[in-house]
Amino acid sequence: MSLVENWQGYLVSQTDSSTQIFSPWKLNGAAVFGYDSDYTTLAISLLRRLASEEKTLVVSEVDKQVSKQILFAATNTVEGENGLTISCGKDASVIAFTGEISLVEVPISNMVEIDSEIYHGINHAWQDESNEKNISQGAYVSGQQYDESLESRLSLIAQEHDMLIWPRRQMDDQGNKISENNVRIKPEGKITSWTKLSAAGAPSEFAIRAPILGGISTVMVQTTDGPNGVFLLADDQDLTPQIGDSVEIVVRRLYAQEGLMRYGAKAIINNRS
User: Fold this and answer.
1) Whole domain around residue 201: which residue ranges?
2) Of residues 141 and 21, more confidently modeled
């Protein structure tokens, strides 16, 4: 079997012709998704693993279970001929390959048993949240607003204007127009502050899942490149944040609204300071 490595909260295995990414969780001997993961978040992490700053990945075919809009917004990827094929497995996995597919064995022995009660509760909560009749009771974000800033938020694209500004803005604090001189921030940094919202105090978008998760944790992160940002912690990482913790910024499910899944940047804790 190929070597299995940890990557952005997932498991990655590579052969000469393909790279496969798996959820790190299992339930009763079968691989399952984490609390805020799906095929789209797996595919994003897989392409980020394959990409480098100097190289733009070309993708020719994307499995219908992966959102192409989210995938391309979150990665340095373009659609074209003779590129990668992105295919989903039935075992909470995604594979990227060119030519003939080369599957690897599911690394069950490397996976961690997930809490069955929370897992089933979260899945039911996502179903309720994804109902078209589920309308926000809090700060409503229209589909158009969400789409307009999607690439900036998911790919951490900042503006260079004396300093790096993220998220992108039209004007600086002096009222001067900011040019479109875009820079991609490294998705890493350190926690400078954090808080945990109780289930009762969580925003309405998370009201269904927050009681199951025992609240929602948010962290203030100073990125390696400078800009600060506030991020939710990945739902399936059961760690209490500490100031100084090193984190990586990844893409996970945020919430569902009016039948549409909303994705966003979240933080996962890598190393204690």
Assistant:
1) 143-271
2) 21
The CA radius of gyration of the chain, in Å to the nearest whole number, is 19
List C-alpha distances in Å: 106 to 25, 109, 114: 11, 9, 16
Q: Is 176 helix (H, G, I), strand (E, B) or coil?
A: coil
**Is residue 130, in this structure, part of any structural domain at all?**
no
Task: Please tell me whether residues 36 and 88 are part of one structural domain.
Answer: yes
Do residues 222 and 211 make contact, with C-beta atoms less than 8 angstroms apart? no
How many independent structural domains does the chain possess?
2
Residues 148 and 223 in one domain: yes
Residues 6 or more apart whose CB falls under 8 angstroms from that of 87 comprise: 61, 63, 94, 95, 96, 97, 101
pLDDT digit string (tens) for 103-126? 788 999 999 999 999 999 999 999
Residue 167 confidence (pLDDT) above 90: no
CB 94 within 8 A of CB 39: yes
Task: Indicate whether 84 pLDDT > 90.
Answer: yes
> DSSP H helical segments within 21-177, as ranges?
39-50, 68-74, 116-129, 143-148, 150-154
**The model's pTM:** 0.92
47 by DSSP, 3-state: which? helix
DSSP assignment of 181-225 equals: -EEEPPSEEEEEEEEEE-TTTS-GGGTTTHHHHTSEEEEEEEETT
Shortest CA distance to 87 belongs to which of 27, 142, 18? 18
Residue 272: pLDDT band with limits 50, 70, 90:
low
163-165 and 182-184 strand pairing: unpaired
Take residue 101 and report the two structure tokens written for it: 């597919």
Would you say residue 132 lies in a domain?
A: no
